[in-house]
Structure formats: C-alpha cells, structure tokens
Amino acid sequence: MPAGFAKAELIAVLVAVTDNEPRVMTLRGGEALPSGPFESKHRSLQSGLRDWIESQTGHPVGYLEQLYTFADKDRDPDAPADKRRISIGYLGLVREQSAAGAGRPAWHSWYEYFPWEDRRDAYSAEVTTITERLDSWASGDPHYRQRIDFLFGLNGKAWNEDLVLQRYELMYEAGLLDGAELGRPMAGDHRRILATGITRLRAKIKYSPVVFELMPESFTFLQLQRTVEALSGLRLHKPNFRRQIDHQELIEETGEMSSGTSGRPAKLFRYRPAILEAQTLSGTRLPVSRH
Amino acid sequence: MPAGFAKAELIAVLVAVTDNEPRVMTLRGGEALPSGPFESKHRSLQSGLRDWIESQTGHPVGYLEQLYTFADKDRDPDAPADKRRISIGYLGLVREQSAAGAGRPAWHSWYEYFPWEDRRDAYSAEVTTITERLDSWASGDPHYRQRIDFLFGLNGKAWNEDLVLQRYELMYEAGLLDGAELGRPMAGDHRRILATGITRLRAKIKYSPVVFELMPESFTFLQLQRTVEALSGLRLHKPNFRRQIDHQELIEETGEMSSGTSGRPAKLFRYRPAILEAQTLSGTRLPVSRH
DNA sequence: CCTTTTATACTCCTTATGAGTACATTGAAG
DNA sequence: CTTCAATGTACTCATAAGGAGTATAAAAGG
Asked: In a mutagenesis test of the A interface, which of B40, B123, B247, B280 is the best target, namely the one with the most A β-carbons within 10 Å?
C-alpha cells in the first residue's frame, strides 16, 4: 500500500445532560465511545455522522462539531506503521437521552471517568489521592511542582475547569492512570478523546450559547444554571448567573410557570434563536480604535 | 480496498508577519499551501510536520496546532468515492520568513487572497463590489439580508474580524468566488483551508499569547501593536493597547532602547514565558461561586 | 526654531463582574 | 396554623476592565 493511505474512522463524543449530570453515550458496557468506519456515501463527514447518530439515539443532534483528529502512533501499538489508524473525533450535543436506539446505547456520567473534574460539591476522596501521588512522582522538581499547582489549583492557584485534557495528560505522564483506581478506564485512547470533548465543551459554553442545545424547550433559570454547573463542574453564584443571562437577552419568558417542584414556582423561559446572529458574544478583547 | 481506508495527507497554514503584513507560506507560485503525504515514521503527526517545516523554511516552528480535518466529498470531485482524500490541516507560526529552504517557499500576504479582510486602513474597492453582488444575490430575502449585514458589518452591525471563514463561505455560496476578481484563488480548497487558519489565529490572539511566537526576541510596543493589527486586520487604540498589554504582565523591559527609527526612541521589551502558566488569561466568564 | 513623528502617562466614563443582602412564594413538618 | 426549608427574584456595593480622548516628552529633519 502506498504511503498516504490509512484506516480512517469517525468517533463521537455525544453529550446530554439529564438529572443534572453530564452524560456521554457509550458502547460495550461503558468502556468505549461510539465509532465507525469512514463511510463514503455522504457528501460530508458531518452529515454522515449526523444521520448515524440519529439512528443510534433516536434523537436529532442539535449541535455537531469536529473535535480533533487522532493519529499518533502510540494509540495502537500493535498496528503496522503503514496502517496507522486515523480517528476523526466529533463533539455532538443531544437534547435528552433516548430510551433505546438501534445499538442500545448506554449513557454514563462523564464524572465516572473523571471524578476529579467534579467540583460542584465537596471534592471526591480521589482528589487528595491524586495530588499526593503527583507530588511523590514530581519528587520536588520545581518545574513539575509549578505545573501541578497550576493544573490542580493548589498553593494559591485557582482551579481552572477548562484544563481537563492537560490534567489528564499530566496524570497519564505520571503513570496514575494505569490501574483502575482513578476513574473508570476506557478502551484504547477513548478516555483521552472524551477528555478532549469535555475540554472543548467547557470552553465553548463561555462564549457561545451551545448550552441551549442541551435544554428542553422551556426551562427555569435554575435548571439552566444546574446544566451549566453540571458541565463546568462548578457551583455558580445564583444572582450573578441570572444577571449575566438576562443581560445577554438570550432567553425570553414563555408566560408559563414551573410546577411540581418544592419551593416557589419559577417563570419558564425559552431560548431565542432569533438573536443567534449576535451570538458571537465575546466579540473583541482587542482595544480597537473606532473612528 | 475495504471501507475505511482513505488517502491521508497533511496540509499546513504557516504564518509569519514581516513588514506589518501577515504572510503565509505557499508553493506553486502562490497558488497552493504546502502539503505532503502522511508519513508514518514519526511518533505523532505533530512532530513529523514540525521536522518537515523546519527543513522547508530553515526556521523552527514556534507554535503548531491542529486546525481541522477536511474530507468532504466535493473537495475533489474527480476522485472515486472509496479513495476520498483526507487532509489534516495544521496552523504553524514561525518567527520570520526564511531566505530559501529546500522547496524554495514563497511567502505571500494573506490579504492577497482575502483583500476584504484588511480593514486597517480605507477599505479596498473590493468591499463595495462584494456587498453589491451579495445584495443582488440575496435579492431582498430578509434572512440573507440579516446574515450579510451581520457578517460584513453593515446597517449598524459591527464588523467582526473573527468571521473570516463564515464570510468566505457566504461568498462561495453566492458564487462570488468563481472568477479571479475577488482576491487571488488557490488550488482546490486551499483557500478555504487558509480561511480556516486565519479564523483560528484571529480568535486565538485574543485569549492566548501566541503573538509572541511571531515577534523577534526584543521589540517595542508599537511593533507588537502593528503585528496584532496585521493579524486582526484592524487598527487598535494605542494607549489602550499599551494598558492592556502591561496590565497582563506578559512582557518586561530589556533595558535597551530602539534606534534607527524616526521619532522618539522606544523601550525594548521581551516576552516573559515564565508567566506562561498563568496564560489562560480569560479564565472564567462564568459567575462562579467561591466560598 | 518649528514641525513631524513616535513614545508615554494620564483622566473620564461606562460596563462587567464578584460578593453579599433582602424579601417573596411555595410545600411540608410539627 | 406556624415555622421552616427550599426556591425565586430584586437589589446594593465595590472593584476591575474597557472605550475614548487629552497632554506631555523626546527624537529627527528642515
């Protein structure tokens, strides 16, 4: 086979949020991400993947974007060099998990695989284990010390929820992921691909209204907040969250009220995709000169 | 050949800034981006590409990141379906253009290909041509009207320099790119790949210190500003640019002064990569609750 | 000496954001 | 029926960041 030919497949990180847990679609009892060979019948990868996902989950994919193409040699140590496997990863958001599609997919909380990424409540016991083991691995090297502090928010540094992949890679490098003690493993490099997806999504919710792809038609402020909290793994300040959302004019009242919950009923809102154009919220951080 | 095998190649958007112009490395007289077959000898795509670029340009690549994987069917209409070409695109930044490497690469300003993206000074004549032709294409459809206004900053909307790819795709859809009148064409879909690279870089300079990969060892504030202006295609407000930069503590004085220019000599600065950890500047836009 | 060009330091005002307080409604426990 | 827990909603206050413009300093060149 001439150089330049390789086995190509698609692999999907499909996310939904149910019961305030971010869930990812898995196969093989939760140890693999859905993937399949690169089919040639569709015009684009995107449209082909979209069809495939809808047949699997029974739900339309609200949002789909290319994540990353994984092709390093060490992902598949046994494969011959000229048949290196290329996986084109996609991140997809679906509105809710389905009962059962063709492949009977199972949805698992992504914190099963990355328990240390959930900082909504008390840190899990794993966190101290991790930092202790990282400490002994670094054995006083100031360069690694600084990196650990930065990635895990230690010694005065703030925790940054976006650094999912970098934390995973440090732990991998330190040999903490060989056993099954720290989070649930996955086949091959699927857990790294999942980490890539979480990283992308956590970054994205800050400057783009993708969260609404995960919300039902109408929802309360608190439901929206809980969804963002689930994704970011952080607790948010309620009044400030409200202020930020309605300052952006992304949602509007439906006129209905929530019911069935304890506490005072809340107004229901819906997303206003009409405003979608103005979405590129952040816009500029450059000090532009407007004359 | 079984399904799942495809021809894979690497393609690079290599950027340098010289004489206040953002330049991209090209082959074949400026009509193609450098690309090559997927070689299997390196551990990762990244390291293989890095070596290749250094041999081509004679300069080390300061920064290299994966851009996007292009695989749509219509990029190569003549190819049989089962031999679809997959191109893995990378964005690389080099410090200056070299005299001549092995492949005698030529550097062209990226505004040759996208003249409408340069808004540093008076808009080029092309801009009015474009909006007129888009207008007649949209022929009053309010949906397209709104999209044109948003993408090109018309009718009260602000120009957003990040929407390079979206503008290119709208123009493509409207059939404005068939001839050679609007910017210089490139082979195949290379111009779209370049648009993807520019889009990524323009977004990136806002929240990450990648600009410094394009700067010489020491530089003045104005040189830095001119580089950012070249990349973003915008004029910046000088005092505010200064304030923003030194507020971030990314650079420090070398102690030297600039010379040889007209006007008052300026202090020279250097980048402080020591602070690189704290780079993730933007950090949070979520109203986190810190207890 | 005066003009041009670049460098650098401020001021002013508005908006965004972190943090906390106060009060309103509901259902459930006692 | 009262109280409380849980949720919803409206504020205030202080600080930081950002847009816009002004003022002064230091060089080169006529």
From this structure: B40
Mean local confidence (pLDDT), A79-107:
74
Q: Please provide the distance, in angstroms rounded to a whole number, between the alpha carbons at the two ends of chain A.
A: 60
Place of tokens 């790819």: B165
Please say whether the beta carbons of B193 and B33 come within 8 A.
Answer: yes
Contact indicator for A257, A265 with CB cutoff of 8 Å: yes
pLDDT reported for residue A4: 60
Judged against a pLDDT cut of 70, whether residue B150 lies above it is answered with: yes
CATH number, span A215-277: 1.10.10.10
Q: Cα distance from A160 to chain B (closest Cα, Å)?
A: 7
Q: Please say whether the beta carbons of B12 and B89 come within 8 A.
A: yes
Confidence check: pLDDT of B101 > 60: no
Task: Name residues 203-232 of chain B within 8 A of A (Cβ).
Answer: 205-207, 228, 232
> Could you say which residues from 22 to 51 on chain B have a Cβ atom under 8 Å away from some Cβ of chain A?
37-45
* Res A66: pLDDT: 96
Left, alpha or beta for A255 (phi > 0: left; psi -120 to 50: alpha)? left
Parts of chain B belonging to CATH 1.10.10.10: 210-275
Residue nearest to nucleotide C9 (CA to C1'): B239
Residue B3 has pLDDT above 60, yes or no: no
Q: Tell me, what's the pLDDT at B2? A: 46
Instruction: Please give the pLDDT value at position A5.
Output: 67
Question: Which chain A residues in 98-137 lie under 8 Å from chain B, judged by CB atoms?
Answer: none
- CA closest to C1' of D11 belongs to A239
Going by C-alpha positions, the residue among A114, A109, A141 that lies closest to residue A127 is A114
- How far is CA A264 from each of CA A104, A118, B194, rounded to the nearest angstrom? 39, 28, 54
Cα–Cα distance for residue pair B280/B135, rounded to 1 Å:
41
Q: How far apart are CA B206 and CA B224, in angstroms?
A: 14
Dist CA B147 CA B152 (whole Å): 8
Chain segment B32-58, per-residue pLDDT in tens: 999 888 766 677 878 888 888 888 777
Instruction: Inspect the interface and report whether the beta carbons of A8 and B3 lie closer than 8 Å.
Output: no
pLDDT in tens, B153-176: 888 888 999 999 999 999 999 999
Pairing of strands A85-94, A5-18: parallel
CATH of domain B210-275: 1.10.10.10
The type of residue at B80 is P
Whether the predicted pLDDT of B23 surpasses 80: yes
Check residue B243 and give its pLDDT: 94
Distance of residue B172 Cα from the nearest chain A Cα, in angstroms: 17
Q: What is the DSSP letter of B218?
A: S
CB B64 within 8 A of CB B46: yes
pLDDT of B79 strictly over 80:
no
In this structure, are residues A280 and A257 in contact, taking their beta carbons and an 8 Å threshold?
no
